[in-house]
């Protein structure tokens, strides 16, 4: 999860923490749809298995490749990378299906790096960071409204992102716990202003099976720089989204296929030294 290929702790630590979050149900904030009945399970799982069988038939997969595939599945389990693999290569399709029946602001994938229990802040807010936190000072500001235009007083913006080297706190050894993470409560007009640092692009962990598969296939392992956000208000559907930055060289080759044109920010100088700022409003639909 850094801006350079690295041999270090990416896969092991990130995989273990992401798996634990998923096991506790902390890696998804979507509304529950209830337990699937046996007919639904048979239909969906059957279709997925038939897709794999078709790939075997169509591409004449032999036992050497089949055994390599089994070893890869074992490696994904041993490193705890199932949340990473599923969020990178499948979640964007689930999100697209969900978006068909949703209104309000544009969403995208959650990803595997959300953590519960972060600092509770009140707008205007500065995210927790080191005294010498590197990177360009960045301000994200805006307003949270309902679909009828009503400002949503007390809405919250749960925000997290990498540091200037591409590391997420809680999933790498370098940043301290809670670094560049926080839950910001908006003011009485639903407005928020959050000071932080501009994040960096990064690769998914290259030392684990997901990264190795990605490189073996010749696919880009990079994610463009982005902010993760969960925007919530009582009685409204939480918007799960990411905000990207214009000019990022990886916008069109995001390994997670999560970028969307209306989620790209164009920060402008504030006149306060190197600080830049973007304004972005959110619209939440009633539950």
UniProtKB/TrEMBL annotation:
Required cofactor names: Fe(3+)
Q: Which organism is it from?
A: Pseudonocardia kongjuensis
Record field: compositional bias (Polar residues): 18-27
Supply the InterPro entries for this chain: 1_2-CTD_multi_dom (IPR043029), Catechol_dOase_N (IPR007535), Intradiol_dOase_C (IPR000627), Intradiol_dOase_core (IPR015889), Intradiol_RC_Dioxygenase (IPR050770)
Q: What PROSITE patterns does the entry give? A: INTRADIOL_DIOXYGENAS (PS00083)
Q: Which family does it belong to?
A: Belongs to the intradiol ring-cleavage dioxygenase family.
Q: Which SUPFAM superfamilies match?
A: Aromatic compound dioxygenase (SSF49482)
Q: What is the lineage of its organism?
A: Bacteria, Bacillati, Actinomycetota, Actinomycetes, Pseudonocardiales
Domain of life here? Bacteria
Name of the molecule in the record: Catechol 1,2-dioxygenase
Record keywords: Metal-binding included? yes
Instruction: Give the span(s) annotated as Disordered.
Output: 1-32
One Pfam family in the UniProt entry: Dioxygenase_N
Name the keywords, alphabetized.
Answer: Dioxygenase, Iron, Metal-binding, Oxidoreductase
Domain Intradiol ring-cleavage dioxygenases, chain residue ranges per copy: 140-168
The keyword Metal-binding appears for this protein: yes
């Amino acid at each position: 999860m850094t801006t350079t290929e690295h041999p270090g702790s990416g896969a092991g630590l990130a995989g273990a923490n992401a798996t634990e979050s998923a096991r506790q149900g902390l890696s998804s904030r979507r509304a529950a749809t209830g337990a699937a009945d046996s007919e639904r399970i048979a239909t969906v799982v059957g279709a997925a298995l038939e897709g794999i069988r078709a790939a075997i038939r169509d591409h004449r997969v032999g036992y050497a490749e089949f055994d390599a595939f089994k070893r890869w599945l074992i490696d994904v389990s041993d490193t705890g990378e199932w949340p990473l693999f599923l969020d990178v290569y499948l979640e964007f399709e689930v999100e697209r299906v969900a978006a068909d029946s949703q209104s309000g602001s544009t969403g995208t994938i959650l990803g595997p790096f959300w953590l519960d229990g972060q600092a509770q802040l009140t707008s205007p807010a500065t995210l927790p960071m080191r005294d010498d936190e590197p990177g360009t000072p960045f301000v994200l500001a805006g307003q949270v409204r309902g679909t009828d235009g009503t400002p949503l007083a007390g809405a919250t913006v749960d925000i997290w992102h990498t540091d200037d080297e591409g590391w997420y706190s809680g999933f790498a050894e370098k940043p301290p716990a809670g670094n560049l993470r926080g839950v910001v409560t908006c003011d009485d007009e639903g407005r928020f202003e959050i000071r932080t640092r501009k994040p960096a692009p990064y690769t998914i962990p290259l030392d684990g099976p997901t990264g190795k598969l990605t490189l073996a296939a010749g696919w880009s392992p990079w994610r463009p720089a982005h902010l993760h956000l969960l925007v919530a208000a009582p009685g409204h559907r939480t918007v799960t989204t990411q905000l990207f930055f214009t000019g990022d060289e990886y916008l069109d080759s995001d390994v997670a296929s999560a970028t969307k044109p209306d989620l790209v920010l164009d920060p402008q100088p504030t006149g306060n030294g190197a600080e830049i700022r973007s304004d972005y409003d959110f619209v939440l639909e009633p539950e």
